[in-house]
Amino acid sequence: MPKTILSVNDGKTVHIDADSSGGGLNQPQRYSPAEIEPKWQARWDADASLYAAEDHDSGKPKYYCLEMLPYPSGQLHMGHVRNYSIGDALARHMWMRGYNVLHPMGWDAFGLPAENAALKNGVPPREWTLGNIVAMKKQMRRMGFSYDWGTEVTTCLPDYYRWNQWFFLKMFERGLAYRKKSKVNWCPECQTVLANEQVIGGRCWRHEDTVVELRDLTQWFLRITKYADELLDGLDKLEGWPEKVRTMQRNWIGRSEGAHVDFAVEGSAEKITVFTTRVDTIFGATSVQLAPEHAVAKVFALEDDVLREKIEGLLEEQKKARESDALGAIEKHGVETGRFAVNPFNGERVPIWVANYILADYGTGAIMSVPAHDERDFEFAQKYGIPLRRVIAPVTSGSEEAALPYTAEEDAVVIDSGEWSGLNCADAQEKMAAFAKAKGFGTPTVTYRLKDWGVSRQRYWGTPIPMVYCDACSPEEPLPVAETELPVVLPEQIDITQTNGSPLGRVAEFVNVKCPKCGGKARRETDTMDTFVDSSWYFYRYTDAKNARAPFDSDKANYWFPIDQYIGGVEHAILHLIYSRFWTKVMRDLGMVKNDEPAERLFTQGMVIKDGTKMSKSKGNVVSPDDMIARYGADATRMYALFAAPPDRDLEWQEEGVAGISRFLSKVYRLVTKYSAAAGSVGGSSSALTAAEQTLLRKLHQTIAKITQDFDGRWHFNTSISSIMILVNEILAQEAVIDAGEVSPAVIAEVFRGLVLLLAPFAPFAAAEMWEQMGAEGVVFRTPWPVANAELAQENEIEIPVQVNGKLVTVVKVPAGSDDDAVKAAALADEKVKARIEGKTVVKVIVVPGKLVNIVVK
Fold it and tell me: What Cα–Cα distance (Å) separates residue 619 from each residue in 18, 73, 546, 622?
C-alpha cells in the first residue's frame, strides 16, 4: 500500500497511508473541502454571536487572544496565514476550555504603501485601501478564522482616527506633545520624516536601498523619554515576553549613567559639551573629537577654507558608510583643526579633531578621547600618533603591567588624577561628577539612546494633526483644535502627485480655518501623524469599537486587559511594541486604564521561507493561500502552517506538505463517516475492556494529555498534529478488530468524538462536518475540551535499558508499576544479558526506577 511520509521537527516521522479500504458500519464518504468548507462558513457567517465575546458578568474567566493587525495590501500571504492560524487554534482551544474569549481583527489602514499604490494606479488611497480590506476580509472568512467582526477596527476611518487626535490633544495639554526644530531622518523616497526606530542600518525601514538623510526641520514630537526609566524597568516584569524582544528594547532605550562636561574652546566663547560614562578617565583625555556637523566644527570651517573642504570630505565618508550599511565598521579618519580645548579638571590644552565616526545626532556629537582606556579611541590615536596617557590601573598589579587599552572598571583604581588618585573607579566617577557640578562646568547625567518620538509626516494618507497657527493672537505657539470640532477630517479628493512638501498644504479649504482663540484667519497644521500612532492603542478600541463618545469604556478595557496572548513578528519588537507600551502608560496616567503594560504574554512566530529567503512580494516568491485553498482546502493549508515547523521557528514552504495534510484529513474523514453511527452512541466505556479497547483508549488519552500540554506550554503544535496522526494510525491498526465487533459502540464513540475534538482547533471545517456526521449536539468548538484520564493513559508495559558495567546491552519490557526485584529479574533473564555475564561474577545490580538497570560484574 502506498504511503505518504510527513516529517515532524521533533526527530520523529509519521507514516500516513495515502489510501485505505475496508468495510464498516457506514459507507465512507468522500472528503471534499470545496463543498464542506463553504457550507460551514455560510453557517458561521449567519451566526453573529458564534465568535462574539460575552459580557464581563458571564461568570467565565476571560481570555484576550490577539494577533497583530495587518496592513491592507489587498491579499493575504502565507506569513499572515501562519500568524493567524496560531491565534485561531489558541482562541478555539480556549473557548473549548470554558473561557470568555475576545478574538478581534482590524486594519492598520493608513500609511505610505496605500499612497504609493494610489500614485502608481491612479486610484485614491481611501478607495484603494477600503477595496483591499474587502478582499482580505473575504480571504480571512474563507480561511475560517474565528474573528468577532463586530469589533472590527479600520484606522483610516474618522470614527477611529478622531481618537488619535483626541489623544494628541491630551498629550499636548500635558506637555507630552510638542514642536521643535531638530535634525530629523529624511527619506528621499518617502519624502517624509522617519523616527529613529524606522531607520535600519542607515536606510529607510520601507526602502532597503534608500539612504536616510539628516535635515533640520520643525516637527511634532511625543515625549516618550519621560517614560524611559519606566519602559526599561517594566521589561523585568514581562516574564511572558521573549527574552530577545526584551533585550532589543533594553538596548534601544539604552540607559547610560555618566556626566556632561564642558570643555572651553581656547580663544573663543564657544564650548564643547561631551557626555562620558567614564569621567574617572578624564585626566587621560588627549584630544576632543567632533562630528563633521557639530556646530563648533562649522564655526571652524567658516574661518578656514582648507579645513572646510577636509570636514566636508569626512561628512561624505559618513554618507557613503550609510549607503553601504557600514557605519559601525567605518574606517576611522579625522582631521586636526589646529584649535585647542581646555580640560576643566586640570586646565590642560588638548587638540580638537573632527572625525568621521562621530555622529552629530548621537549623544552631544562630541567626545573626549581617552585612547589608553577606550578601544575605539586607541585605534584612532594609533593611526594619527595622538599620545596615550594611563590613568586607570588594576588594584592588584602595577600600572605598567596592564596592557592598553585597559577598559576595566571593577577591581581598578584611578592613578595620576590629582586628588582622586587611589579611588576605585565607581567612587571616582561619583565624586568627580559632583565636583564638576559644584564648579559649574558639568553635571551628573543619565542619557538614553531612546529619543522623543517624531510623529510628523509630510504625506497625505494619515491622521491630520489637530493644531492651528494664528499669526495674530499666537504667533509663537500653535493652538489646539477644540475637542468638539473633532475629527479634523482628512480631505478625500486631493492631488497627491506632487511630492514637494505636504499634500495637505495645497488644499486651501483644508488649510484655511478660523482661529479657535480669536476667530480670525488661521492655518491648519498640514503634517499628518506617523502611522505607528494608529497601532499603539488599537487593541483597546477592540473592547468597545462602536463607542462614539470616547475611545473606549474604561470598565470594558479594564475587564479585558492586559492582553492574555499577543502574537506577531519579532520585526515589531521596537517599532510597534515600545510605542504601544508608552501609549498604555499615558492612558493609565489619564485614568483610562489600570494596567501598566498592554500584553501579559507575547509570542513571535517564525517567518515563512521559500527558495531560501523570506516569502515576500518584493522577492517574487509569494504563495497565495487562495491557490492552496482551491487545491487542498483551507483546513489543510492552515494545518500545514502549524505542522511543518514549531511556530517560533522559520517554516520552509513545501506544497507537497499541504497535499500530505489534505490526504490525512481525507483519511480521518473516511474513518469518522464509516463509524459515524457507532460514534454517535452515548454512554461511557464498560469496566471490562478488551485488549483492543484498552489500546485505543490508552492512545486517545495519551494524545489528549500531549495536546493539552502543548497548548499550556510551548505551543509545539507540530507535535500536537503529529500525535493526532499517531492516534489515527492506531485506529487504522485496530480497524479490522473494530469491524469484527470487538470494540463496543461506547468506546468507538469516545475515541472518535475525542479525535474530532482534538482536531477542531486545527481543522475547524472538517471537525464541524464530522461532528455533524456523528450526530453530536452543539458546536464542536463550543464543546468542552476532553480531559485526559491518567489511568487509561498509563502504558501496560514500559521499556527499561539494561547496561552491563555501564555499556548498553539491551532493552527489556516489564509491566508498568513493576518493583525493583521484578525489574532485576527481567534484566537477568534476558538472553543478551545472560550471554554477556556468562562466566562472570555479578557484584551488584543497580536499578534506577523507570530509567535503567546497570549490572556490575567482574
Answer: 34, 16, 39, 8
